[in-house]
Amino acid sequence: MTIEEAQKIIDEWITTVGVRYFNELTNTAILMEEVGEVARIMSRVYGEQSFKNPEEKPELADELADVLFVLICIANQTGINLTDALNKNLEKKSIRDSQRHLKNDKLK
């Protein structure tokens, strides 16, 4: 699925199953909560923290999907085409960083 298709699918889901979008502030809070869940899993699976329950099965893919879902909700309700935004952002990064990373000794 393309980003544009994802934006349409999520909009359709929100207006049928979800009834309506939460407001932008609520979605921002939900986004922060979901990013926190990703951070919790990352720190325990890839970092030095441990799970309180060693039998816990972290669902990183599901949490990343939650982040993407809420991010797309925010884009939809603020009128942002994420395909265009990502293309512009990559162009900006390419111009800005065209030599920066190549010349970074820390990355060699």
Automatic annotation (TrEMBL):
Matching CDD domains: NTP-PPase_BsYpjD (cd11531)
Gene3D superfamilies: MazG-like
Domain NTP pyrophosphohydrolase MazG-like: 23-100
InterPro entries to which the protein is assigned, alphabetical: MazG-like_dom, MazG-related_YpjD, YpjD/YvdC
Name listed for the protein in its UniProt record: Nucleotide pyrophosphohydrolase
Source species: Candidatus Sphingobacterium stercoripullorum
